[in-house]
Amino acid sequence: MGKIVGRPADNVPLRIYTASFGAFLGLAIVKFGNPVILDEKITPPVSLSEAWTYPWPTHWANLLLVLLALPGIWLGFKHWRGWPSARALWVLPVAWFGWQLVSATHTVDGALTATTLWQIAGCLVAYFLGALVLGYERGLRWLLIGILAAFAFCLVRAAEQRLVEFPQDRQFLLEGERSGWTNLAPETFAQMKKDNLIITTNGVEVANPMYLTKLEKGRVNGTLVYPNALAGIVLLLFPLSIVLALNATGRFRPVTRSAVIALTLFLGIAGLFWSGSKSGWLIAMAIGGVWLLRLNWPARWKWVAVMAVAVIGLGIFGVRFHKYFAAGATSVGARFDYWRAAVRTTDEQPVFGTGPGTFQRPYARLKAPESEMARMVHNDYLEQFSDSGVVGGVCYAAWIGTLLVVLGRRVWRMGDALPFAIFAGLLGWFVQGFSEFSLYIPALAWTAFCLSGWLLGWSSNQIDSRKTTS
């Protein structure tokens, strides 16, 4: 193992760099929350108003990451003391990326693959910078400034959507339809027709019923591409936010401290609940159970608490989603069709796959006639097998599995709440990868892999320090 030398907390360039990288990840959460394969569909903003309101093209994030990676490489070499963990945790990600490059030479869509390779490279850059540059004792506080500020903004945006924006938009459309759209300026009416918010049915312009249904359901997405992505960022960062709200407010006045803790709990739980993510809710329950079992309580009380969480959580789940299951759980059936197509693609192209990011090409041929078209597998692990063959899939799965085992063992032994909260968030996020495509969203993947690298580097430094002390 190795560690950063000197006194990193007193290293001003390192602190500035760590804070800058955290600010970049915060910007990604706010502006780069779309999957990279949709980059060509994102119109670049042409005014400050559009730049504030709308997402930015994901390829802009690549340029910013390159600019940040260059000084990071210099800092990494300056403080180099070897890889801070088991060799497999750098061999496997490098092998995975290397096989993506090999698979890219056999891709069925060069444009999609080139875009995806940038995203995968970004994951590795964030991971290695986290492990080799940012993973020092006090680095987390600087890293989290931008990340948690953006996370809070994302959750506030989600609450605004649920409580204000969606009800107002729905009422506006219904009133416009009742008035024959006389309440709209001609240019506004034309734009809404172009955006498919108003459609023509039997010669009459009406509000798009699918959009009205979406607004009525009220599933929020914050600053990210869709509700399940919001659930992903909550799974990743909410455990960390809770611990900080509890531990970092000890010197606050009781009223202020209670308000901060209550607001943190409300925004996180409400954001997850309003996202309407079934898997996100169940994963959060499971992570909560793991956390309870780790507490220094008598075993009986631990299991009582776990059972209480299970009963309350499943009760809320049943009430929240009973209409969904009564309607046949259509999204579950759709995912099984995606996964079936991914398995079949792997069987047909076991060596190179169809190329990184290209699942939509074989799926257009293999999907069930009644299924809607999908661009992603909605399973990050199966996507690796489908896109880059067995070697790519095995390398990714082995990397993530080994990473979680190593980090889990370390933080469980150490007993520190904050590192365990980071691990709990990572565990929830990687588990969600079995039903989502978060690996292909810069806001989610780059943040997750940076925190993974930080925890790896920090925990290695702690082990080295304790060995030296002993």
Question: How would you portray this structure in words?
Answer:
The chain has about 475 residues and is mainly alpha-helical. The protein has helices at about 10-30, 50-55, 60-80, 90-105, 110-135, 140-180, 185-195, 210-215, 225-245, 255-275, 280-295, 300-325, 330-350, 360-365, 380-415, 415-430, 440-470; strands at about 200, 205. It has two domains: about 10-165 and about 225-470, no CATH class; about 165-215, no CATH class. It has 17 helices and two strands. A hairpin with a 2-residue loop joins strand 1 and strand 2. Helix 1 (about 10-30) packs parallel to helix 6 and helix 9 (about 225-245) packs parallel to helix 11. The model is unreliable at about 1-5 (pLDDT under 50).
Strand segment count: 2
Number of domains: 2
The secondary structure category is mainly alpha
Sheet with most strands = 2 strands, antiparallel
Q: Termini, distance in Å?
A: 16 Å
Listing every helix as H and every strand as E from the N terminus to the C terminus, the arrangement reads HHHHHHHEEHHHHHHHHHH
Question: Number of helix segments?
Answer: 17
* Rg, Cα atoms, Å: 23 Å
Strand content: under 5%
Helical content class: over 70%
Instruction: Give start-end ranges of low-pLDDT stretches.
Output: 1-7
Widest β-sheet, arrangement of strands: 1-2
The overall pLDDT, averaged over residues, is 90
How does the overall form come out from the CA principal axes?
Answer: globular
